[in-house]
Design goal:
107 residues, two-stranded antiparallel sheet, single chain, mainly alpha
């Protein structure tokens, strides 16, 4: 453990700044539950991969004779879906780095 102290975001007690779990209340912001770690990942990975692929293919549609509006719709819609699902995946990935004293968390 480090020499610096911080405040637990849940119970406000003084704890080590690098603590993964608050010794007073047991708060574990990096704890992955089934919902945040498993189900979201299982759903978001294929959604991200498929929508990103369709968005990239949509960029090439005007070269095959398709209407520009069709290509624009594909890029905007499927690119947006890829961005949202990618954001969920990134948040699940970063959750493991959180500590009990992380100031970015709100109780």
């Amino acid at each position: 453990m480090g020499d610096t102290t911080a405040t637990c975001e849940k119970c406000r007690s003084a704890i080590d700044a690098e603590a993964a779990r608050c010794p007073e209340c047991g708060f574990e912001p990096g704890n992955r539950g089934k919902l945040s770690g498993g189900i979201i990942t299982l759903v978001c990975y294929p959604v991200f991969a498929i929508s990103a692929t369709i968005a990239l293919i949509s960029v090439l549609l005007p070269f095959s004779g398709a209407a520009l509006s069709t290509a624009a719709f594909g890029v905007i819609f499927f690119g947006g879906v890829a961005a949202v699902s990618g954001g969920f995946l990134y948040s699940v990935y970063k959750k493991k780095d959180r500590t009990a004293a992380d100031p970015s968390l709100s109780s």
